[in-house]
Amino acid sequence: MEHILERVEDALGALVRLADKHEGLIPSILDLDGTQMLQEMPAAIEGQRDGDRAFRGSNTIHDEATLATLYALALARGRDDLRGAADRYLQRFATHCAVTPTGLFPWGEHAFWDLDADSIGDSHKRRDPSRAGSAIHDHLRATPFWLWEKLQQFNPSCVQAFADGLQYHWTQGEPAEYIRHATIETRQLHPRGDRSCDFPRHGGFFICDWVFAYQTQPRAETLHQIESMLDYWWSKRDERGLLQIESRTPEQNDRFHDVNAPAQTLSLAVSLLEAAARLDSTTDLARRMRSRASVYIDAFFAAPHDLDAGVFVILSKRSTNEVFQSMPVWGSVYGVWPASYVALTALLGFRHTQDERLLDWARSVGKCYVAEPLPGHVNVPAMDAGLGLGLLSDLYDQTGEPSWIESAQRLAVNLVDIYFERVLPAGASGINWYESQMGPGFLLHGLARTALLSRSRQGCVLAADYTAR
To answer: pLDDT for 421-469, tens place per residue?
Structure first.
């Protein structure tokens, strides 16, 4: 696996050299030689939205797994320059990019840092220059606690400002309702629309953010936000304990009305477990988090998964508990995650609970990644490849079963052949550019973790990445 680490190091080195031209920030859309940002935005691949991309910019949520890999290889390879590059990136972001009118950061699904203008970037405006309004905050994925610790180190005030700024995800009106979107540059509660767009997973992300901020500065306002969000979904369960993809949808909306989200129910459960682990385990708040997480986990298994048939349910009908949408192994598109996404969430839940059902579910998904090759006719995002590899390597880390690391090694070699035509990994199979939004950071992370676990299961310095949940 040494050659795999060398390919990852070469790619990281190219990204670091480009970051040196931009005060430490890594650009999002690049040529595969790793020499420059592209001058024109390539056409989106199937299932990708232009309003999610960071053209001529940098997106820290996209780069989180890449930064974690930089820190790990700095230790594993004795490369202080890699640690310094990751620190420079996050210091620049924390002190220069993260200071906004609301405290919310220009990162995530629809916002980024515009490297040409040196200002907040708006992905929606890149898609449609005539669009009115300002840049939108959306978490996209969970922010890991190690990243909050780094931002706290470089600029403590930005962490508290972000926690306070999450209030702008609450919407105008009664009863209390939040939305996954919030304006970054305008201090206002978001207008309430026909749909709530509150999504259970985002509530879990916010709770983890607030818990970290509360640990660093135990303010009553932050505790109130945690308590409010903890209670928000609890009364919205169905008889199985499942949560809807959003709590309020017009009946004529066939995509969201009467639709449960088992995968998001599990995501919220795992975020509650993560948050509880950061708190004093004896507190009533931590106990309630763990108790409710247990109910949500039971609900996840009440969904109509069929492990023998390889049917892994992301959405189900609330009224009938029938499958509404299952997850592919390869070839995710917007709104439909790869199965590895949720299997890794299950493995994080297993780390906290030792619930064998979670491990068995993840094992079933892992077997599909061993058996099913990447399709040649689909542009498979690098995220799918990286998370598939991450799943196999984490199954090995948690079980010690050699077959998982052997499968991960074979897959790693295959993925290098598919994605590494030149120095940087392609954003998706069959395309000729790097793009952070497609998840190449997960691929770099998965390759490095597989190689390091192959050296030593106990001594691996790169932890699993569970932000995709």
So the answer is: 999 999 999 999 999 999 999 999 999 999 999 999 999 999 999 999 9
pLDDT, mean over the chain: 97
Q: Is the pLDDT of residue 166 over 80?
A: yes
Asked if residue 419 has pLDDT above 80, the reply is yes
Q: Using an 8 Å Cβ cutoff, are 389 and 411 in contact? A: yes
Q: What is the pLDDT of residue 132?
A: 78
Say how far apart CA 97 and CA 29 lie, in whole Å: 19
| Residue position matching structure tokens 């069959």 | 430
pTM for this prediction: 0.98
In this structure, the number of other CB atoms found within 10 A of the CB of residue 139 comes to 26
Distance CA 271, CA 22 (A): 34
pLDDT-derived band at 131, boundaries 50, 70, 90: confident
Q: Pull the structure tokens for residue 236.
A: 């919205």
Tokens standing for 254?
A: 């066939």
The rounded distance, in Å, linking the Cα atoms of 289 and 299 is 15
Q: Distance of alpha carbon 269 from its chain centroid, rounded?
A: 15
SS3 of the chain: the string is CHHHHHHHHHHHHHHHHHHHCCCCCCCCEEECCCCCECCCCCCCCCCCCHHHCCCCEECHHHHHHHHHHHHHHHHHCCCHHHHHHHHHHHHHHHHHHCCCCCCCCCCECCEEEECCCCEEEEHHHHHCCCCCCCCEEECCCCCCHHHHHHHHHHCHHHHHHHHHHHHHHEECCCCCCECCCEECCCCCCECCCCCCCCCHHHHHHHHHHHHHHHHHCCCHHHHHHHHHHHHHCHHHCCCCCCCECCCCCCCCCCCCCCEECHHHHHHHHHHHHHHHHHCCCCCHHHHHHHHHHHHHHHHHHHCCCECCCCECEEEEECCCCCEEEECCCCCCECCECCHHHHHHHHHHHHHHHCCHHHHHHHHHHHHHHHHCCCCCCCCCEHHHHHHHHHHHHHHHHHHCCHHHHHHHHHHHHHHHHHHCCCCCCCCECCCCEEEHHHCHHHHHHHHHHHHHHHHCCCCCCCCCCCCCC
**Cα–Cα distance, 449 to 461 (Å, whole number):** 8
For tokens 């936000």, name the residue: 225
Cα–Cα dist 214/142, whole Å: 17
Q: Looking at residue 154, what is its pLDDT? A: 98
**What is the C-alpha separation between 318 and 312, in angstroms, rounded?**
16
